[in-house]
Amino acid sequence: MAPASKADKKASVDAAAWMFNVVTSVGIIIVNKALMATYGFSFATTLTGLHFATTTLMTVVLRWLGYIQSSHLPFLELLKFVIFANFSIVGMNVSLMWNSVGFYQIAKLSMIPVSCLLEVVLDKIRYSRDTKLSIAVVLLGVGVCTVTDVSVNTRGFIAAFIAVWSTALQQYYVHFLQRKYSLGSFSLLGHTAPAQATSLLLIGPFLDYWLTTKRVDAYDYNMWSLVFIILSCTIAVGTNLSQFICIGRFTAVSFQVLGHMKTILVLIMGFFFFGKEGLNLHVVLGMIIAVVGMIWYGNASTKPGGKERRSHSLPT
After folding, report:
1. Cβ neighbours for 274, distance < 8 A, ≥ 6 positions apart
2. What is the pLDDT of residues 35-51, one digit of tens each?
3. 17, 70, 155, 297: least buried by Cβ within 10 Å?
4. What pLDDT, on a 0 to 100 scale, did the predictor assign at position 7?
5. In the chain, which residues have pLDDT < 50?
6. How many other C-beta atoms can be found within 10 angstroms of the C-beta atom of residue 94?
7. CA-CA distance, 193 to 53, in Å (whole number)?
8. Dist CA 196 CA 18 (whole Å)
9. What residues form DSSP beta bridges with 126?
10. Residues 113/166, Cβ–Cβ less than 8 Å
11. Where are the alpha helices (DSSP H) in 40-74?
């Protein structure tokens, strides 16, 4: 196959992977919003455990059908990944409860600089000036869209700090483990999903009770709430898989930068479905700035020298 054809095929697969992640991520946000706001199912950590339990079931079926080959992931590597991932989930939930929405959004935006720092220190990645500036433009645009009231307290700052670093480490580790142990997205999910499902379903009900003072076993389940729970779990399979595919094909930084397109789409769909009272000039301006920054990043990071590794050795 000619080099141009290979490049075209890679670009098509990359675009499909991003679209898969965007569609499933936006879909699960809308379904979870309806589940929690309309039906009062506020047990976010337990729901995430159910998401990974459903993902585990998918990996079992795919392994039985022969689509996932047997592979090895050392227990200590799996343990580190699960710790990072679970601290990310719990930290985000606690951060949202203890912080203002504005500071929570700032914390989420800070994941990009933290992910950059991890790649610079651990992978010896070097960014060009244009790549750095494009990331700054994305941060500025999303910040203008989402950051409103900003108030900080000590425990909220600690929760946000843990959430940001654990999320950045978890996403970095997805890319690292796939490279180091030659694992595909399905194979890595086959190792991590059962461990995450087990741990989150064990701690989830207690954490949710602490956060909401409500017990998941005392929730008034009905047909429609169960339909939305099942729908959320089904979409989550695609969300989990597409995240691993995207980070495996790209890097955690690219996943974070271009992933803010989901933030823009959620805002637009929120205005479309839930009213236009939040749609004002500075939000529209922020969206435009963010999209320009994403396009600039995509162009700058793929140019020679835009984002390159100084050493090809893997971190120890």
Report:
1. none
2. 988 899 989 999 999 99
3. 70
4. 67
5. 1, 312-313, 316
6. 21
7. 7
8. 24
9. 308
10. no
11. 44-65
For residue 276, give both structure tokens: 């236009």
Give the closest residue to 138 by CA, choosing from 314, 298, 274, 311.
Answer: 298
Q: Under a CB-based contact definition with an 8 Å cutoff, are residues 59 and 193 in contact? A: yes
Amino acid at 196: Q
DSSP type of residue 315: P
Other Cβ atoms within 10 Å of 188 Cβ, number: 25
What is the Cα–Cα distance from 7 to 251, expressed in whole angstroms?
Answer: 18
CA distance 85 to 167: 7
3-state helix, strand, coil in the chain (%, to 5): 80, 0, 20
Per-residue pLDDT tens digits for 263-296? 777 777 666 665 555 566 777 788 788 888 888 8
CB-based contact 290:105 (threshold 8 Å): no
Q: Which pLDDT score is estimated for 138?
A: 85
The 8-class DSSP code of residue 125 comes to: E
Rounded to whole angstroms, the Cα distance separating 52 from 123 reads 29
Helices (H), 223-280: 223-249, 252-274
285: CB partners within 8 A, 6+ apart:
144
- Distance between the two ends of the chain, CA-based, in angstroms? 36
The residue among 174, 183, 195 whose CA lies nearest residue 115 is 174
Position 115, amino acid: S
pLDDT of residue 204: 94
pLDDT at 21: 86
* Residue 255, token pair as written in the block: 């996943």
Phi, psi (rounded to 5 degrees) for 127: -100, 140
Q: How far apart are CA 47 and CA 79, in angstroms?
A: 21
> Whole-angstrom Cα distance, residue 227 to residue 29?
15
Q: Which residue has the tokens 């009213």?
A: 275
